[in-house]
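B., you asked whether I could sanity-check this one before it goes into the benchmark set. Here's the sequence:
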Amino acid sequence: MKFTAAQIAGILEGDIIGDPDVEVSKLSKIEEGTEGSLTFLANPKYKPYIYSTQASITIVNKTFEAENKLTTTLIKVEDAYKSFSKLLEYYNQIKINKFGIEQPSFIAENSVYGLNVYIGAFAYIGEHVTIGNNVKIFPGSYIGDNVTIGENTLIFAGTKIYSDCVIGSNCVINSCCVIGADGFGFAPNENGEYSKVPQTGNVIIEDFVDIGASCTIDRGVTGDTTIKVGSKIDNLVQIGHDTVIGKKCLIASQVGIAGCVVVEDEVTFWGQVGCTSGVTIGSKAVILAQSGISKSLDGGKTYFGTPAEDIRTKYKELASIKQIPEILQTIKSKK
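And here's what the prediction gave me:
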């Protein structure tokens, strides 16, 4: 897909310095720009590259003034970084702008779908499913019985949504997620063998939630596992049964949250945090990477370590530990 400088300037409401008819078909870093590519300059430390880049078009701030000869066509805008992001969003919308029902695919006769939907090849839509307007379900996805999907939601290839789950509007669920599988529920019997506990609950994902690739969100045992409005979840995250994730939470890659956890609004989990079952994390808490949560935590604080503690307490503890060799040496010298 090719765009001219004139077309891009029109989208961004920018001014062209150079050839308005030059075309681009790919993106590049400014230091790696090649003919036919589009790049941008926002960070001043990359300014020297604008005189050597081979990119055909470069988006710059209106305040930029060339000090040497340029070979790239400039598009001047108020904020180069925001404009480049806007262009990426526009390009991404074009890429996923698919409509219609591809074959082979299966849609149960008693399921309903709205206007302008896309259902890719080899998708399976079970009984009594309700799909809203402008929903896009990419190839190889499985939508179980009685699932509801709100309008403008994207479900990328290979995702599996088990029966009875509710997906809100304007959500993005990336490839290979599993939503609504049974939680890790087993009870020992008199012989010491483990019997499966039936998982009869559900998963509810509210509006404007983004879920990264290969995430797993388990259904509740008897209640709902819930992800509330506006939360954003990175790749490779596990959320256990009956857990509630509040509004506008951020959960980074490889976080594992056990069952029956309550995460209040605007909490941030950085990468590889582990959280035991049955605890509550207060609103606006920040849990730093690789921390282990073994008890409930108050909101509005930053935590670190295993077990996770207030970061000021933890840093004092770490500073004390570093002094242990010196203290031991002092003790030995006095013997």
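One thing to flag: Residues 3-95 form a domain with the Udp-n-acetylmuramoylalanyl-d-glutamate--2,6- Diaminopimelate Ligase; Chain: A, domain 1 fold (CATH 3.40.1390.10). Otherwise nothing jumped out at me.
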